[in-house]
Design a protein that fits this description.
- The chain has 123 residues and is mostly helical.
- The protein has one domain: Cytochrome c-like domain (Cytochrome Bc1 Complex, Chain D, domain 2), CATH 1.10.760.10.
- Helix content is 46%, strand content 0%.
- The radius of gyration is 18 Å and the shape is globular.
- It starts with a helix and ends in a 5-residue tail after the last helix.
Length: 123
């Protein structure tokens, strides 16, 4: 009984009362999965910059620099050719030195927000 009362009290707080509206991310594959309050840039920094950040200690950036030899930027957030679907596929299936990232490692909503962030400058 006390647990039920505590749960009802929590739901009456402003954080629960004013939940943001879901928004779809165009081109992210399964657009029926809502993205609520996710920040693509913050999620990119959280999940991706350990490997894809600037500097010599980032294996993803080094691998892309070797692959593209300056024809494309090695830093993902400076690319203009990435589609959301490509980002999602690459994260879920891996490629070259990039491992597969399971849904338990990065959730669909967070991945979708990253894909939207990285594909924002697509030509």
């Amino acid at each position: 009984m006390r647990l039920a009362i505590a749960a009802l009290a929590m739901m009456a707080t402003p954080a629960f009362a004013a939940s943001p509206q879901p928004r779809a991310v165009p081109g992210a594959g399964w657009s029926s999965v809502a993205v609520v309050g996710h920040d693509g840039k913050a999620n990119y920094e959280r999940y991706c910059t350990a490997c894809h950040g600037a500097g010599p200690d980032h294996p993803g950036t080094q691998a892309l620099a070797a692959k593209y030899k300056g024809a494309e930027p090695a830093l993902l957030d400076r690319r203009k050719d990435l589609s959301a679907a490509f980002v999602i596929y690459t994260v879920r299936h891996g490629v070259s030195v990039m491992p597969v990232m399971r849904k338990t490692e990065i959730g669909d909503a967070d991945l979708k927000s990253i894909a939207a962030y990285l594909s924002r400058g697509k030509k």
